[in-house]
Request: fold
Amino acid sequence: MFYREAGDFKTSYATDNQTFPIKFDRLGYFTVMAVAFLVIPFIINDYWANAIFLPFLIYAIAALGLNILVGYCGQVSLGTGGFMAVGAYACYKLMTSMPEVNIFFHVLISGGITGLVCVIFGLPSLRIKGFYLAVATLAAQFFLVWLFNRVPWFYNYSASGQINAPERTVFGIPVTGPNTEAWATYLFCLVFVVVSALIARNLTRGMAGRKWMAIRDMDIAAEIIGVNPLKAKISAFAVSGFFVGVSGALFFSVYLGAVEVGEAFGINKSFLVLFMIIIGGLGSIFGSFAGAAFLVLLPVVLKVVGVDWLGWPTDIVAHLQLVIVGGLIILFLILEPHGLAQLWRVTKQKLRLWPFPH
Amino acid sequence: MSTQESYVTDDGRTIGPTVMEMKNITLRFGGVKAITDISFDIREGEIRAIIGPNGAGKSSMLNVISGFYVPQEGEVWYKGKKRPPMRPYQVAEQGIARTFQNIALFEGMTVLDNVMTGRLRKMNASLISQAIWRGKAEKEEIENREAVEKIIDFLEIQAIRKTPVGRLPYGLKKRVELARALAAEPSILLLDEPMAGMNVEEKEDMSRFILDMNDEFGTTIALIEHDMGVVMDLSDRVVVMDYGKKIGDGTPDEVRNNQAVIDAYLGVAHD
Reply:
């Protein structure tokens, strides 16, 4: 009834190109932004921040990054955990060696460094595709974790081999370290998420995104019409690496505070982010958020329902979670390969006509 | 035959000097000779057809022109210069666009995005500018959208602008592919069987588009086609290939009366 494009006439290509061409979508977007910036910071507490909002926001950035590489450019990567570790360790080295620089820039530079590393490991994509590329990036995953475990320089020769985030502030308010407040860490991550999403959206609706999708859909035809496959793939790896690095840096510095690389950034992390974009929807910005929200919320909901309400033992609920995630992935691959984003699109399509049958 | 002076055809189009020349091209795949010692030229503004029975090497010839295959012998001259061996995307950068026998569109993208991809040679805003969608990127996006809309109008595909290509029927996909190639404003447009698998009306539409393109934009066109009626009607000059060799070259009338061509198509009596 309210959700329709009829009557919303576009008179310039600029308005036709905008991110949310339908008025109702724009309103929804501004509402979400207003709630995220003006309401949640005042009601958030430590539990909500640590159990839901921080992991959701941080994984959303990682999922955006991986989605650009896998969903838009069609280059499969299983190295996300390793690349997040690059972001985390880059951030740690920057925080400890240049304490006078604002943490905000540390996170950005960590993203840049990860982008470079990602490009290096992405070079084989020029020769190999599909499964073989997946295996090559898997090698990156194991190599990077090994590197951060074995070279003491990366963890500043600490006895435990862990890295710990020292306290850093933004405008005098601590966002890392032990004395942070929920709203500050939440807002800090939110800013990165919003900017990442805007950048990802702008890149994917412009020429860069078209080149990536051309490579994904038919690489030979893309080359014939003038896409330089080297540049297109490398730029996808670089942008993807940047986002994944930012998420790794935030994951370590803001969310966990202390990290042991094999545990925090192991192969499981790579799969988790990959599952997020498969369930959420490959080649969709919204899907990255939907998938991250889904896989962050699922364990929390299961725990609340299973342990708190039904009184089941914790280990059974934990195992049940693995079963459900596995089942859902198979279900999604069979029924809706385009994920939650496609369900959302179908719903919107239906809404355009509702409540009329035709 | 001198090929350098411009002349005006019967229907009033000006055919310019040679824009591309193939000199003694030989292409081998292992022991198989796909193309043997073929030379021909393409002149500015003309519609040049390449015909021949199946397996004659026509598509291979087009692949040589678009840089997909590198011939073992022979030279490709383009705009008066010898072309070094180059990758297909470099050939595209020089202004040669093509369509494929089996449609090669980007199925996951909309018609508009597919055609916009054809404009990539005209758009070179930096990644940063694209990321913030300000300045050069936004300006280019709008300017090129205008150019693309003209082509969409021209090929009468306005209604399906925002439809993902994967959902379109065959005939429309062919047209979208033509739009994408045309969007590049190519110096030479290569069409590999633009009318394969079409019914009579679709063929008529496509013929009209090809003639209009040539007429309005002055696009030089080299096309491969099996429908003899279409080829003889459309083209200014025809190259005939058989078993990788050139057996005829000239105006449709000359080719039609060429004994070697008649033999290749109708067969020779063995007594």
Summary: Chain B touches chain A at residues 66, 68, 87-89, 92-93, 97-98, 100, 104-109, 113, 116-118, 120-121, 123, 125, 127, 130-133, 137-138, 140-142, 145-146, 149, 180-181, 184 (CB under 8 Å). DSSP finds ten helices and twelve strands in chain B. The longest helix of chain B spans residues 136-154.
